[in-house]
TrEMBL record:
Name recorded for this polypeptide: Aminopeptidase N
Residue stretches making up the Aminopeptidase N-like N-terminal domain: 57-228
Peptidase M1 membrane alanine aminopeptidase domain segment(s): 299-464
InterPro entries given in the database record: Aminopeptidase_N-like_N, Aminopeptidase_N-like_N_sf, Peptidase_M1, Peptidase_M1_aminopeptidases, Peptidase_M1_dom, Peptidase_M4/M1_CTD_sf
Length: 481
Protein backbone atom coordinates (compact mmCIF):
# COMPACT_ATOMS: atom_id res chain seq x y z
CA UNK A 1 0.00 0.00 0.00
CA UNK A 2 3.06 2.25 0.14
CA UNK A 3 2.62 3.75 -3.30
CA UNK A 4 -1.08 4.19 -2.66
CA UNK A 5 -0.47 6.06 0.59
CA UNK A 6 1.91 8.35 -1.17
CA UNK A 7 -0.74 8.92 -3.80
CA UNK A 8 -3.42 9.66 -1.22
CA UNK A 9 -1.08 12.04 0.55
CA UNK A 10 -0.14 13.68 -2.74
CA UNK A 11 -3.80 14.03 -3.68
CA UNK A 12 -4.64 15.38 -0.24
CA UNK A 13 -1.75 17.76 -0.46
CA UNK A 14 -2.83 18.96 -3.89
CA UNK A 15 -6.33 19.56 -2.60
CA UNK A 16 -4.95 21.28 0.48
CA UNK A 17 -2.72 23.54 -1.58
CA UNK A 18 -5.55 24.31 -3.96
CA UNK A 19 -7.84 24.81 -0.98
CA UNK A 20 -5.69 27.31 0.88
CA UNK A 21 -4.80 29.26 -2.24
CA UNK A 22 -7.97 28.62 -0.06
CA UNK A 23 -38.21 30.21 1.64
CA UNK A 24 -39.98 27.36 0.42
CA UNK A 25 -41.45 26.85 -3.09
CA UNK A 26 -44.78 28.45 -3.84
CA UNK A 27 -47.77 26.17 -4.27
CA UNK A 28 -49.25 26.49 -7.75
CA UNK A 29 -52.78 27.33 -8.79
CA UNK A 30 -55.16 29.51 -6.85
CA UNK A 31 -56.92 32.52 -8.21
CA UNK A 32 -54.48 35.00 -6.78
CA UNK A 33 -51.62 36.44 -8.80
CA UNK A 34 -48.61 36.92 -6.56
CA UNK A 35 -44.94 37.76 -7.10
CA UNK A 36 -42.60 34.78 -7.40
CA UNK A 37 -40.22 34.38 -4.47
CA UNK A 38 -36.80 36.01 -4.77
CA UNK A 39 -35.09 32.72 -3.81
CA UNK A 40 -35.82 29.05 -4.50
CA UNK A 41 -35.62 28.19 -0.80
CA UNK A 42 -32.06 26.97 -0.25
CA UNK A 43 -31.18 27.66 3.41
CA UNK A 44 -27.49 28.28 2.56
CA UNK A 45 -28.24 30.73 -0.26
CA UNK A 46 -31.59 32.50 0.24
CA UNK A 47 -31.22 34.61 -2.92
CA UNK A 48 -30.20 31.78 -5.28
CA UNK A 49 -32.83 30.68 -7.72
CA UNK A 50 -36.35 32.05 -7.67
CA UNK A 51 -39.90 30.91 -7.05
CA UNK A 52 -42.93 30.68 -9.29
CA UNK A 53 -41.58 29.26 -12.53
CA UNK A 54 -39.37 26.57 -14.00
CA UNK A 55 -37.03 27.17 -16.96
CA UNK A 56 -37.12 24.67 -19.84
CA UNK A 57 -34.51 26.17 -22.14
CA UNK A 58 -31.94 28.97 -22.34
CA UNK A 59 -31.02 30.28 -25.76
CA UNK A 60 -27.97 32.48 -25.15
CA UNK A 61 -26.12 34.60 -27.68
CA UNK A 62 -23.16 36.49 -26.30
CA UNK A 63 -20.38 38.47 -27.86
CA UNK A 64 -17.16 39.04 -25.93
CA UNK A 65 -14.15 41.13 -26.81
CA UNK A 66 -11.14 40.23 -24.64
CA UNK A 67 -9.47 43.53 -25.57
CA UNK A 68 -12.14 45.55 -23.74
CA UNK A 69 -13.70 42.88 -21.46
CA UNK A 70 -17.03 43.97 -22.92
CA UNK A 71 -19.80 41.43 -23.18
CA UNK A 72 -23.03 41.88 -25.16
CA UNK A 73 -25.71 39.38 -24.32
CA UNK A 74 -29.11 38.26 -25.56
CA UNK A 75 -30.94 35.61 -23.54
CA UNK A 76 -34.18 33.98 -24.64
CA UNK A 77 -35.57 31.98 -21.74
CA UNK A 78 -38.48 29.59 -22.18
CA UNK A 79 -40.15 28.83 -18.85
CA UNK A 80 -43.40 27.60 -17.34
CA UNK A 81 -45.20 29.31 -14.47
CA UNK A 82 -45.70 27.13 -11.40
CA UNK A 83 -48.11 29.62 -9.77
CA UNK A 84 -50.21 32.54 -10.90
CA UNK A 85 -47.49 35.17 -11.31
CA UNK A 86 -47.80 38.92 -11.12
CA UNK A 87 -44.03 39.27 -11.42
CA UNK A 88 -40.94 37.10 -11.13
CA UNK A 89 -37.20 37.34 -10.55
CA UNK A 90 -34.14 36.21 -12.45
CA UNK A 91 -30.69 36.14 -10.87
CA UNK A 92 -28.11 38.48 -12.40
CA UNK A 93 -25.02 40.16 -10.92
CA UNK A 94 -23.36 43.19 -12.46
CA UNK A 95 -24.05 43.84 -16.17
CA UNK A 96 -26.52 46.40 -17.48
CA UNK A 97 -29.95 45.35 -18.67
CA UNK A 98 -31.03 47.10 -21.87
CA UNK A 99 -34.48 45.61 -22.48
CA UNK A 100 -36.82 42.88 -21.27
CA UNK A 101 -39.84 41.43 -23.03
CA UNK A 102 -42.22 38.71 -21.88
CA UNK A 103 -44.07 36.88 -24.65
CA UNK A 104 -43.00 39.62 -27.04
CA UNK A 105 -44.31 42.57 -24.99
CA UNK A 106 -42.04 45.05 -23.26
CA UNK A 107 -41.97 44.35 -19.54
CA UNK A 108 -41.23 46.59 -16.57
CA UNK A 109 -38.10 45.57 -14.77
CA UNK A 110 -35.84 46.69 -11.93
CA UNK A 111 -32.55 45.58 -10.48
CA UNK A 112 -31.19 44.90 -7.03
CA UNK A 113 -27.77 43.48 -6.18
CA UNK A 114 -28.53 39.90 -7.18
CA UNK A 115 -31.89 40.12 -8.88
CA UNK A 116 -33.58 41.21 -12.07
CA UNK A 117 -37.24 41.73 -11.14
CA UNK A 118 -39.59 41.44 -14.13
CA UNK A 119 -43.21 42.60 -14.14
CA UNK A 120 -44.87 41.40 -17.35
CA UNK A 121 -47.53 43.48 -19.07
CA UNK A 122 -49.94 40.55 -18.75
CA UNK A 123 -50.06 38.32 -15.68
CA UNK A 124 -48.79 34.77 -16.12
CA UNK A 125 -51.13 31.88 -15.42
CA UNK A 126 -49.97 28.83 -13.48
CA UNK A 127 -48.65 26.00 -15.65
CA UNK A 128 -48.58 28.12 -18.85
CA UNK A 129 -45.35 28.48 -20.79
CA UNK A 130 -43.88 31.94 -21.29
CA UNK A 131 -40.81 33.40 -22.97
CA UNK A 132 -38.54 36.06 -21.50
CA UNK A 133 -36.17 37.97 -23.78
CA UNK A 134 -33.38 39.96 -22.12
CA UNK A 135 -30.75 42.12 -23.83
CA UNK A 136 -27.85 43.21 -21.68
CA UNK A 137 -24.21 44.25 -21.74
CA UNK A 138 -21.25 45.07 -19.50
CA UNK A 139 -18.07 43.72 -17.97
CA UNK A 140 -18.76 40.33 -16.38
CA UNK A 141 -18.00 39.77 -12.70
CA UNK A 142 -15.57 37.45 -10.98
CA UNK A 143 -16.55 35.62 -7.79
CA UNK A 144 -14.77 33.36 -5.35
CA UNK A 145 -15.49 29.70 -4.62
CA UNK A 146 -17.67 29.42 -1.49
CA UNK A 147 -15.61 29.34 1.70
CA UNK A 148 -12.33 30.03 -0.13
CA UNK A 149 -10.56 32.93 -1.80
CA UNK A 150 -10.20 30.97 -5.03
CA UNK A 151 -11.02 33.15 -8.02
CA UNK A 152 -14.08 31.97 -9.96
CA UNK A 153 -16.84 33.34 -12.16
CA UNK A 154 -16.02 35.06 -15.44
CA UNK A 155 -12.23 35.05 -15.12
CA UNK A 156 -10.52 37.43 -17.51
CA UNK A 157 -7.41 35.80 -18.96
CA UNK A 158 -4.63 37.11 -21.19
CA UNK A 159 -6.40 35.87 -24.33
CA UNK A 160 -10.05 35.55 -23.29
CA UNK A 161 -11.92 34.17 -20.30
CA UNK A 162 -12.29 31.05 -18.22
CA UNK A 163 -15.89 30.70 -17.05
CA UNK A 164 -16.21 28.38 -14.06
CA UNK A 165 -17.41 28.55 -10.48
CA UNK A 166 -19.48 26.85 -7.81
CA UNK A 167 -22.03 27.51 -6.54
CA UNK A 168 -22.13 30.83 -8.38
CA UNK A 169 -20.90 31.68 -11.87
CA UNK A 170 -23.90 31.85 -14.21
CA UNK A 171 -25.15 35.19 -12.85
CA UNK A 172 -21.91 36.76 -14.11
CA UNK A 173 -22.92 36.24 -17.74
CA UNK A 174 -26.65 35.61 -18.16
CA UNK A 175 -29.98 36.13 -16.37
CA UNK A 176 -30.80 32.80 -14.81
CA UNK A 177 -32.79 30.79 -12.31
CA UNK A 178 -29.53 29.95 -10.58
CA UNK A 179 -30.00 26.78 -8.54
CA UNK A 180 -29.54 23.01 -9.08
CA UNK A 181 -33.31 22.55 -8.62
CA UNK A 182 -33.97 24.20 -12.00
CA UNK A 183 -32.16 22.31 -14.76
CA UNK A 184 -32.73 23.29 -18.38
CA UNK A 185 -31.43 22.64 -21.87
CA UNK A 186 -29.14 25.23 -23.45
CA UNK A 187 -28.24 26.67 -26.81
CA UNK A 188 -25.14 28.81 -26.48
CA UNK A 189 -23.72 30.94 -29.30
CA UNK A 190 -20.51 32.79 -28.45
CA UNK A 191 -19.06 35.41 -30.77
CA UNK A 192 -15.38 36.23 -30.35
CA UNK A 193 -12.67 37.87 -32.45
CA UNK A 194 -11.69 35.53 -35.30
CA UNK A 195 -8.71 33.41 -34.31
CA UNK A 196 -10.04 32.76 -30.83
CA UNK A 197 -12.09 29.75 -29.83
CA UNK A 198 -15.16 29.70 -27.57
CA UNK A 199 -15.78 26.39 -25.83
CA UNK A 200 -19.07 25.49 -24.19
CA UNK A 201 -21.06 22.41 -23.19
CA UNK A 202 -22.48 19.56 -25.18
CA UNK A 203 -22.34 19.26 -28.95
CA UNK A 204 -20.49 21.69 -31.23
CA UNK A 205 -23.01 22.69 -33.90
CA UNK A 206 -20.44 24.62 -35.91
CA UNK A 207 -18.45 27.82 -36.19
CA UNK A 208 -18.94 30.62 -38.71
CA UNK A 209 -16.72 33.64 -39.29
CA UNK A 210 -17.83 37.01 -40.68
CA UNK A 211 -16.28 40.46 -40.58
CA UNK A 212 -13.49 39.39 -38.26
CA UNK A 213 -15.75 37.71 -35.68
CA UNK A 214 -16.34 33.99 -35.22
CA UNK A 215 -19.52 32.55 -33.73
CA UNK A 216 -19.23 29.20 -31.99
CA UNK A 217 -22.56 27.39 -31.57
CA UNK A 218 -23.16 24.77 -28.90
CA UNK A 219 -26.13 22.68 -27.84
CA UNK A 220 -26.58 21.01 -24.46
CA UNK A 221 -29.82 19.02 -24.76
CA UNK A 222 -29.77 16.94 -21.59
CA UNK A 223 -30.89 19.31 -18.84
CA UNK A 224 -28.04 21.07 -17.07
CA UNK A 225 -27.64 23.07 -13.87
CA UNK A 226 -26.73 26.69 -14.49
CA UNK A 227 -23.37 26.60 -12.66
CA UNK A 228 -22.16 23.89 -15.05
CA UNK A 229 -22.52 26.09 -18.14
CA UNK A 230 -19.30 27.56 -19.51
CA UNK A 231 -18.24 29.94 -22.25
CA UNK A 232 -14.48 29.62 -22.08
CA UNK A 233 -12.68 31.79 -24.61
CA UNK A 234 -9.13 31.98 -25.84
CA UNK A 235 -6.60 30.35 -28.11
CA UNK A 236 -7.05 26.57 -27.93
CA UNK A 237 -5.76 23.46 -29.63
CA UNK A 238 -9.03 21.59 -30.12
CA UNK A 239 -9.32 17.87 -30.65
CA UNK A 240 -12.79 16.83 -31.85
CA UNK A 241 -13.19 13.07 -32.02
CA UNK A 242 -15.92 10.65 -31.01
CA UNK A 243 -16.10 8.12 -28.19
CA UNK A 244 -18.75 5.40 -28.59
CA UNK A 245 -20.27 7.69 -31.21
CA UNK A 246 -20.51 10.73 -28.93
CA UNK A 247 -18.50 13.93 -29.51
CA UNK A 248 -15.31 14.05 -27.45
CA UNK A 249 -14.00 17.60 -27.47
CA UNK A 250 -10.74 18.41 -25.72
CA UNK A 251 -9.56 22.02 -25.72
CA UNK A 252 -5.97 22.56 -24.66
CA UNK A 253 -4.31 25.92 -24.15
CA UNK A 254 -1.48 26.08 -26.72
CA UNK A 255 0.66 28.04 -24.25
CA UNK A 256 1.03 24.82 -22.24
CA UNK A 257 3.78 22.51 -23.48
CA UNK A 258 2.44 19.75 -25.75
CA UNK A 259 3.24 17.02 -23.21
CA UNK A 260 1.80 18.87 -20.22
CA UNK A 261 -1.82 17.89 -19.54
CA UNK A 262 -2.47 15.88 -22.69
CA UNK A 263 -1.35 12.58 -21.19
CA UNK A 264 -3.99 12.84 -18.44
CA UNK A 265 -6.98 14.46 -20.16
CA UNK A 266 -6.57 12.35 -23.29
CA UNK A 267 -7.56 9.43 -21.05
CA UNK A 268 -11.03 10.98 -20.54
CA UNK A 269 -12.71 8.23 -22.60
CA UNK A 270 -10.87 5.44 -20.82
CA UNK A 271 -11.65 6.85 -17.37
CA UNK A 272 -15.30 7.41 -18.34
CA UNK A 273 -15.59 3.79 -19.48
CA UNK A 274 -14.04 2.60 -16.22
CA UNK A 275 -16.45 4.67 -14.13
CA UNK A 276 -19.38 3.41 -16.23
CA UNK A 277 -18.52 -0.15 -15.13
CA UNK A 278 -19.06 1.05 -11.54
CA UNK A 279 -21.83 3.66 -11.80
CA UNK A 280 -23.83 2.60 -14.87
CA UNK A 281 -24.11 4.24 -18.30
CA UNK A 282 -22.48 7.65 -18.85
CA UNK A 283 -25.41 10.08 -18.63
CA UNK A 284 -24.63 12.65 -21.35
CA UNK A 285 -24.48 13.07 -25.13
CA UNK A 286 -20.91 14.38 -25.29
CA UNK A 287 -17.70 14.46 -23.28
CA UNK A 288 -14.39 16.28 -23.17
CA UNK A 289 -12.13 18.64 -21.25
CA UNK A 290 -10.83 22.19 -21.14
CA UNK A 291 -7.37 23.10 -19.85
CA UNK A 292 -6.49 26.80 -19.75
CA UNK A 293 -3.08 28.10 -18.72
CA UNK A 294 -4.63 30.89 -16.60
CA UNK A 295 -2.36 30.98 -13.57
CA UNK A 296 -5.08 32.18 -11.17
CA UNK A 297 -7.35 29.20 -11.84
CA UNK A 298 -6.69 26.94 -8.86
CA UNK A 299 -9.48 24.39 -9.09
CA UNK A 300 -11.12 21.95 -11.44
CA UNK A 301 -14.85 21.96 -12.08
CA UNK A 302 -17.25 19.33 -13.36
CA UNK A 303 -18.79 21.48 -16.14
CA UNK A 304 -21.34 19.21 -17.80
CA UNK A 305 -19.74 17.20 -20.63
CA UNK A 306 -16.67 19.47 -20.49
CA UNK A 307 -14.79 19.63 -17.16
CA UNK A 308 -12.39 22.53 -16.75
CA UNK A 309 -8.98 21.81 -15.20
CA UNK A 310 -6.49 24.14 -13.60
CA UNK A 311 -3.04 23.85 -15.14
CA UNK A 312 -1.77 23.37 -11.61
CA UNK A 313 -3.00 19.76 -11.57
CA UNK A 314 -0.49 18.90 -14.28
CA UNK A 315 3.20 19.02 -15.01
CA UNK A 316 5.44 18.22 -17.94
CA UNK A 317 5.98 14.52 -18.49
CA UNK A 318 3.75 11.47 -18.22
CA UNK A 319 2.34 11.03 -14.71
CA UNK A 320 -0.51 8.55 -14.10
CA UNK A 321 -1.44 10.31 -10.82
CA UNK A 322 -2.59 13.30 -12.83
CA UNK A 323 -5.56 11.19 -13.91
CA UNK A 324 -6.99 11.29 -10.34
CA UNK A 325 -8.47 14.72 -10.98
CA UNK A 326 -9.86 13.47 -14.30
CA UNK A 327 -11.56 10.58 -12.49
CA UNK A 328 -12.86 13.08 -9.94
CA UNK A 329 -14.44 15.47 -12.45
CA UNK A 330 -15.79 12.66 -14.63
CA UNK A 331 -17.41 11.00 -11.59
CA UNK A 332 -19.25 14.28 -11.06
CA UNK A 333 -20.93 13.78 -14.44
CA UNK A 334 -22.98 11.07 -12.67
CA UNK A 335 -22.93 12.59 -9.17
CA UNK A 336 -23.28 16.35 -9.17
CA UNK A 337 -24.36 16.91 -12.75
CA UNK A 338 -26.84 14.15 -13.68
CA UNK A 339 -27.88 13.53 -10.06
CA UNK A 340 -27.76 17.02 -8.60
CA UNK A 341 -27.95 18.16 -5.01
CA UNK A 342 -31.40 19.14 -3.80
CA UNK A 343 -30.04 21.88 -1.57
CA UNK A 344 -26.39 22.89 -1.40
CA UNK A 345 -26.01 21.29 2.02
CA UNK A 346 -26.16 17.92 0.17
CA UNK A 347 -22.80 18.68 -1.49
CA UNK A 348 -21.09 15.71 0.27
CA UNK A 349 -23.05 13.50 -2.15
CA UNK A 350 -21.18 15.22 -5.01
CA UNK A 351 -17.74 15.39 -3.47
CA UNK A 352 -17.95 12.11 -1.54
CA UNK A 353 -18.72 10.17 -4.72
CA UNK A 354 -16.06 12.06 -6.70
CA UNK A 355 -13.49 11.32 -4.00
CA UNK A 356 -14.56 7.69 -3.88
CA UNK A 357 -14.13 7.53 -7.65
CA UNK A 358 -10.50 8.58 -7.15
CA UNK A 359 -10.01 5.63 -4.78
CA UNK A 360 -11.63 3.27 -7.30
CA UNK A 361 -9.46 4.65 -10.08
CA UNK A 362 -6.43 4.30 -7.79
CA UNK A 363 -7.24 0.63 -7.39
CA UNK A 364 -7.38 0.32 -11.17
CA UNK A 365 -3.94 1.96 -11.38
CA UNK A 366 -2.62 -0.65 -8.93
CA UNK A 367 -2.28 1.92 -6.17
CA UNK A 368 -4.08 0.05 -3.36
CA UNK A 369 -7.71 -0.78 -2.70
CA UNK A 370 -10.43 1.55 -1.39
CA UNK A 371 -10.31 -0.55 1.81
CA UNK A 372 -6.62 0.24 2.21
CA UNK A 373 -7.30 3.92 1.55
CA UNK A 374 -10.13 3.83 4.10
CA UNK A 375 -7.97 2.16 6.74
CA UNK A 376 -5.10 4.57 6.17
CA UNK A 377 -7.39 7.59 6.50
CA UNK A 378 -9.36 6.10 9.40
CA UNK A 379 -6.11 5.83 11.36
CA UNK A 380 -5.48 9.58 11.01
CA UNK A 381 -5.94 11.66 14.16
CA UNK A 382 -8.94 13.90 14.81
CA UNK A 383 -6.89 16.97 13.95
CA UNK A 384 -5.98 15.61 10.52
CA UNK A 385 -8.22 18.26 8.96
CA UNK A 386 -10.90 16.14 7.34
CA UNK A 387 -12.90 14.81 10.32
CA UNK A 388 -14.58 18.02 11.41
CA UNK A 389 -16.98 19.61 10.86
CA UNK A 390 -18.98 16.53 9.81
CA UNK A 391 -19.92 16.67 6.11
CA UNK A 392 -23.72 16.32 6.20
CA UNK A 393 -24.47 20.00 6.92
CA UNK A 394 -21.11 21.75 6.48
CA UNK A 395 -22.32 25.33 6.19
CA UNK A 396 -21.35 27.81 3.50
CA UNK A 397 -17.82 28.33 4.84
CA UNK A 398 -17.00 24.61 4.72
CA UNK A 399 -19.01 23.80 1.59
CA UNK A 400 -15.78 22.62 -0.05
CA UNK A 401 -13.88 21.78 3.11
CA UNK A 402 -11.81 18.59 3.39
CA UNK A 403 -14.53 16.82 5.36
CA UNK A 404 -17.03 17.12 2.50
CA UNK A 405 -14.48 15.40 0.24
CA UNK A 406 -12.57 12.97 2.43
CA UNK A 407 -15.08 12.14 5.16
CA UNK A 408 -17.72 12.12 2.39
CA UNK A 409 -15.75 9.42 0.58
CA UNK A 410 -15.11 7.59 3.86
CA UNK A 411 -18.87 7.61 4.53
CA UNK A 412 -19.50 5.83 1.24
CA UNK A 413 -16.87 3.20 1.94
CA UNK A 414 -18.16 2.75 5.48
CA UNK A 415 -21.58 2.14 3.92
CA UNK A 416 -20.00 -0.46 1.64
CA UNK A 417 -18.42 -2.20 4.66
CA UNK A 418 -21.75 -2.06 6.51
CA UNK A 419 -24.15 -3.34 3.84
CA UNK A 420 -21.70 -5.47 1.84
CA UNK A 421 -20.45 -5.15 -1.75
CA UNK A 422 -23.53 -6.47 -3.51
CA UNK A 423 -25.98 -4.10 -1.79
CA UNK A 424 -23.52 -1.18 -1.99
CA UNK A 425 -23.14 -1.37 -5.76
CA UNK A 426 -26.88 -1.80 -6.20
CA UNK A 427 -27.38 1.36 -4.13
CA UNK A 428 -24.81 3.31 -6.15
CA UNK A 429 -26.24 2.26 -9.52
CA UNK A 430 -29.82 2.78 -8.38
CA UNK A 431 -28.95 6.28 -7.15
CA UNK A 432 -27.45 7.18 -10.53
CA UNK A 433 -30.36 5.58 -12.43
CA UNK A 434 -33.41 6.65 -10.44
CA UNK A 435 -32.32 10.26 -9.87
CA UNK A 436 -30.80 10.58 -13.36
CA UNK A 437 -31.37 14.04 -14.78
CA UNK A 438 -32.88 15.22 -11.50
CA UNK A 439 -31.95 15.98 -7.91
CA UNK A 440 -31.37 13.94 -4.81
CA UNK A 441 -31.20 14.88 -1.14
CA UNK A 442 -29.28 13.17 1.65
CA UNK A 443 -32.59 11.94 3.12
CA UNK A 444 -33.49 10.35 -0.22
CA UNK A 445 -30.08 8.68 -0.44
CA UNK A 446 -30.47 7.24 3.06
CA UNK A 447 -33.97 5.99 2.22
CA UNK A 448 -32.65 4.29 -0.94
CA UNK A 449 -29.76 2.69 0.95
CA UNK A 450 -32.18 1.37 3.59
CA UNK A 451 -34.62 0.06 0.99
CA UNK A 452 -31.96 -1.81 -1.00
CA UNK A 453 -29.96 -3.13 1.95
CA UNK A 454 -33.03 -3.91 4.04
CA UNK A 455 -31.29 -2.32 7.02
CA UNK A 456 -32.02 0.51 9.41
CA UNK A 457 -29.21 3.00 8.69
CA UNK A 458 -30.27 6.12 10.57
CA UNK A 459 -27.70 5.68 13.34
CA UNK A 460 -24.98 4.84 10.81
CA UNK A 461 -25.58 7.94 8.67
CA UNK A 462 -26.09 10.11 11.73
CA UNK A 463 -22.66 9.13 13.05
CA UNK A 464 -20.87 9.56 9.71
CA UNK A 465 -22.63 12.67 8.41
CA UNK A 466 -23.72 14.69 11.41
CA UNK A 467 -21.69 13.89 14.55
CA UNK A 468 -18.38 15.53 15.43
CA UNK A 469 -15.38 13.27 15.92
CA UNK A 470 -14.47 9.89 14.50
CA UNK A 471 -17.34 7.43 13.92
CA UNK A 472 -16.94 3.82 15.09
CA UNK A 473 -15.01 1.58 12.70
CA UNK A 474 -17.67 -0.29 10.66
CA UNK A 475 -18.24 -3.79 11.99
CA UNK A 476 -15.81 -3.65 14.93
CA UNK A 477 -12.21 -2.70 15.67
CA UNK A 478 -9.93 -1.39 12.92
CA UNK A 479 -7.11 -3.67 11.84
CA UNK A 480 -3.89 -3.25 13.82
CA UNK A 481 -1.61 -0.65 12.24
N1 LIG B 1 -16.76 20.69 -7.44
C1 LIG B 1 -15.40 21.20 -7.55
C2 LIG B 1 -14.51 19.98 -7.48
O1 LIG B 1 -14.29 19.36 -8.44
C3 LIG B 1 -15.13 22.18 -6.48
C4 LIG B 1 -14.09 23.14 -6.79
C5 LIG B 1 -13.62 23.86 -5.57
N2 LIG B 1 -12.31 23.37 -5.23
C6 LIG B 1 -11.72 23.57 -4.07
N3 LIG B 1 -10.56 23.05 -3.87
N4 LIG B 1 -12.30 24.24 -3.14
O2 LIG B 1 -14.14 19.53 -6.44
ZN1 LIG C 1 -15.41 17.66 -6.80
Amino acid sequence: VGARLTAVLAAGLTMAVLNTATAGADPGGGGHFRPGAAGIGDPYYPTYGNGGYDVADYDLAIRYDPATDALDGHAVIRARATQNLSRFNLDLVGLTVDSVTVDGRRAHWSRSSHELVVTPRRKLHASRPFTVDVRYHGVPTTFTIAGTDLEAGWMHTDDGAVVAGQPEVATAWFPVNDHPLDKASYRIAITVPAGLAAISNGVHLGTTTRDGWSTWRWRQSTPMISYLATATIGRFRISETTHHGKPMIIAMDPDLPPDFADDAVSRTGEVTDFLATKFGPYPFEANGAIVDDYDNLHFALENQTRPIYSRHFFAAGVNPWETYVVAHELAHQWFGDSVAVHHWRDVWLNEGFATYAEWLWGERLGDGTPQQTFDYLYAQPLDAGFWNPPPGDPGVDQLFGSSVYTRGGLTLHALRMTVGDAAFWRIVRAWAATQRGGNGSTAEFIALAERISGRQLDAFFDAWLYQEGKPAYPGGAPPAA
